[in-house]
Amino acid sequence: MCLALPARVTALLPDDMAVVALGGVSKEISLALVDDVAEGDYVIVHVGYALSKIDPDEAAKTLALFAEMSTAPE
Amino acid sequence: MTLQRKGPSIDFVHGRVDLTHGGGGRAMAQLVEELFVAAFDNDMLRQRNDQASFTVEAGRMVMTTDGYVISPMFFPGGDIGSLAVHGTVNDVAMAGAVPIALSASFILEEGLLLADLQRIVRSMAEASREAGVPIVTGDTKVVEKGKGDGVFISTTGIGRVPVGLDISGDKARPGDVILISGTMGDHGVAVMSQRESLGFETTLLSDSAALHGLVAAMVAAVPSIHCLRDPTRGGLATTLNELATQSGVGMMIREDAIPVRAEVRGACELLGLDPLYVANEGKLIAIVPAEEAERLLAVMRAHPLGADAAIIGRVVADDHHFVQMETSFGGNRVVDWLAGEQLPRIC
Amino acid sequence: MKYIDEFRDGQLARHIAASIVAEASPARGYALMEFCGGHTHAISRYGIEDLLPANVRMIHGPGCPVCVLPIGRVDNAISIAQQPGVILCTYGDLLRVPGSKRLSLLKAKAAGADVRMVYSAGDSLTIARDNPDRQVVFFAIGFETTTPPTALVIKQARALGLTNFSVFCNHVLTPAAITNILESPEVRELGTVPLDGFIGPAHVSTVIGSQPYEYFAEEYQKPVVIAGFEPLDVLQAILMLVRQLNEGRFEVENEFSRAVTRDGNRKAQAVVAEVFELRRVFEWRGLGMVPYSALCIKEAFADWDAERRFAVETVSVPDIKACECGTILRGLKKPVDCRLFGTVCTPESPMGSCMVSAEGACAAYWTYGRFRQSSQTPTKASS
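Output (structure tokens, whole complex):
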């Protein structure tokens, strides 16, 4: 129960709204449930609302973890 | 013989369709004359009979008909009018046939803006001219407000199959190669972007196009093509399942081989849709004996409407008639029929 | 697409899977439940079970709010939609769910009810503002991910002083469902839970944080790994669970650290607490009555509560006898164990909650997995 996508904030709008882009498609969504979002940030969007920001450092760490795990013997 | 009494010219700027336009009287005759005949203009229409009459060369004929009810009427890359021409020309072409002529029947809702109707009709005329397939006869009816979604168009097309072709949905055989002519899902996403409730923006255009030129090039080079079909409603997945069932075979396709534009992927992710099930209106699937596949691919790529053509899989023997797909992940999954209409989801 | 494509890399997937194969001890089985419907979908769509060793088994939990919505509540929504002047707004997922007498919102629409699909709760508010002479009702469902948007919309309705807007609230809670699974009758019989660990939901956790799962890990001594939504996240989480089980640990680990923190989204939690309160008990399809598992609208916002406005009375409508959804949702049976699966019960004519939505265990299995049951795999020709 989570069709939520990471999308990039391309523009901030008044009234806690923003435009996000995903693969070349853009959509207006609400930022009312998150704080401190800037242009260029990635947010997780669910039914037209941003639920959280993606932490780029943690994302990089997770990807690195996959790669690390992947050196396990086959 | 000239008209004895000429009323005021039709107001295409502010006017609306009303019940007199379907009444069979002067108002209707005027609409037909000033809009339809003027736009579609050809010898047969100029005869002004209730039927078009012409001679055809002896041979195998095909006939097809389709209704167009799309909403919204206007979308990026096309409208209900151009779609009505392309769709029916394509159905004729999928038999390998050369389209000869179209008929067009309109059911107009009382209150429809004449400006919109004119725009649609002119778009049809242009599509017809570009395709070289004339609209030779037609009909107009008007229904009361609330009983029609603006306009419904029905087009019927006829064509002639060149000698030596035997293209049919039941001709796919194990070992055949499956090709598609380009990117999947463009039309459906372009239309969905216009639906306010979904509210997303894209520069994507519908791929609506007449494919008979591409088909002519294909059958000329490779007359042994087994199947042709355009993946319209229900998308690639549904059409492949149709062909698999009709031919009594299975199919094995590769997800990585299917070209999908980034915007289509993005929109589908956003809405929870699968591009494999999204409609196309300017693409075709071809199934051909393996030894001809590369040659056919080259011919398709050489044509502007087939520039992104790709080989996507093979026909296999399978009593269950499953269409299976090797995912980009390396696993295998079944690509099933669409259960009803694909709806955007939250889950 | 950034943060999506990298997490779907097939090659990395095979490597992680190889680690799972290497580290899963052949001396035991690993029964892991993925709670979230989105995870069920990812597992099916990417064929993740194909990559796992035979002794690591995935059990599909009740994390699909469409699936667990009782028939009686669907009937209520249909009745509301059938009232004159009402516009019922609903997410797409709910349109085809059959209620009693084989009716659905889609069928009610065909018969004349004004039912409209919306992508977002905010859209229903817009419809209410555009149609001041109609009563607009938003059919709200979902776990903690979807609840904050509904809360916001109710607050907005109050701020705007709208008198023609209300919400039919069916929001449910994840921890309560997990407790219910861990305390099922079979547990009392067997004295043990036939589950070894949980993959925690991705986006629910961005809202509630990882903290609420600490109770389960400790109380029931089962490891929980919160996983992101992409297939690599799921595989990684499975590996992490296998490792915890091998090492005898039962902790809450967060694989989805790029979006989930221990506290979660406090702002969203606050807005939910302002508008909603706990129902003492709520029926879950397949699970029966579950205490403190669902939300209703607080008295302060009573004017926007459709249950009060339309005097909704919910009748409990049982599933047909042979339906095994209850046991499937608790991980005790598989779809193929149900007599109705694939015969009477298919996605076109769903009999129970597991088939009703694309995320349900039976629907997912039907769409992606049933061909594996077929007697022969078709000849694979390379392309």
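Residues 231-246 of chain C form the longest helix (16 residues).
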